[in-house]
């Protein structure tokens, strides 16, 4: 079992990583949150189907009610948010209550946003069940989606703790593994050249990844995320670098319809695009072709879906949270581990999208 400490200006909390980590949740609450009156557990429906009969024993000494939420991005809607708040009120949760999120990144985003707004804010604990959630469970960015943009209705609300039980990852589909690992690769590219080189050298398949290697990669990814969060909790500066690959990635994800493509699949294409832009704008010295081929070996799609309009993608990118007054900003790299935030004109974006689509 590994324990990391995530520290921000106003809050510090543990991230416990390892097989069986969930069995420490009850003791943590009893020891550190003695005033908790009631607990609302928000769990992904797929996770509940597979694990809940075994999981509920981990909360046997606690007062809790369970809300089973839709899987994936379908959970992050106004309707589900409204339904959960009604459920919590019916179950008599109050300002001394606690929310526990059990599921992937979408459930963590949803449950965290519920916690940040219910009774003007109550504490919550993250129990991520996917590789993707190693990123989203840490850092306190919580949100729901709007039809015009992903995560547009949200806030910053740090968890009290994160318990990352690696046993949940055994049931993930290959597609879900790819979605999550795109964020791990991102962490290496923006912050740690040695870590990226290790992944490039040792990671040849996502189908048979040893538990030791997986734990090592995820732990380092969380450490990197924690460093950015500690330096810039509210994304006023360097934390924006964590959005590498996300400007185009979020646009693709929205145009495909949330759930049409996974988040990580979209971000993978976004990273390739950002690397090509980095070569063009900042003279990045990096073999993008080799990187693209590596992603293909790992099973990623590395091109934009043919039916998506470049103009629609640009419109989506203008709605990105980094954009100001319609000016699209991209996280680019001057070299591996050295990100910068750059304004990119509409003309260059459309030109590069056309070249990218042709494999240029």
Automatic annotation (TrEMBL):
Domain 3-dehydroquinate synthase N-terminal spans what residues? 68-177
Its Gene Ontology biological processes? amino acid biosynthetic process; aromatic amino acid family biosynthetic process; chorismate biosynthetic process
Q: In which pathway does it act?
A: Metabolic intermediate biosynthesis; chorismate biosynthesis; chorismate from D-erythrose 4-phosphate and phosphoenolpyruvate: step 2/7
The superkingdom listed in its UniProt entry is: Bacteria
The answer, when asked if rRNA-binding is one of the entry's keywords, is no
Q: Which UniProt keywords apply?
A: Amino-acid biosynthesis, Aromatic amino acid biosynthesis, Cobalt, Cytoplasm, Lyase, Membrane, Metal-binding, NAD, Nucleotide-binding, Transmembrane, Transmembrane helix, Zinc
Q: Identify the enzyme class.
A: lyase
Membrane spanning residue stretches: 98-119
Q: Which Pfam families match?
A: DHQ_synthase (PF01761), DHQS_C (PF24621)
Cofactor, how bound (note): Binds 1 divalent metal cation per subunit. Can use either Co(2+) or Zn(2+).
- Which SUPFAM superfamilies does UniProt cross-reference here? Dehydroquinate synthase-like
Mind listing the GO molecular function terms for this protein? 3-dehydroquinate synthase activity; metal ion binding; nucleotide binding
Task: Quote the PANTHER family the UniProt record gives.
Answer: 3-DEHYDROQUINATE SYNTHASE, 3-DEHYDROQUINATE SYNTHASE, CHLOROPLASTIC
Q: Which HAMAP family match?
A: DHQ_synthase
Protein name as annotated: 3-dehydroquinate synthase
Gene name on record? aroB
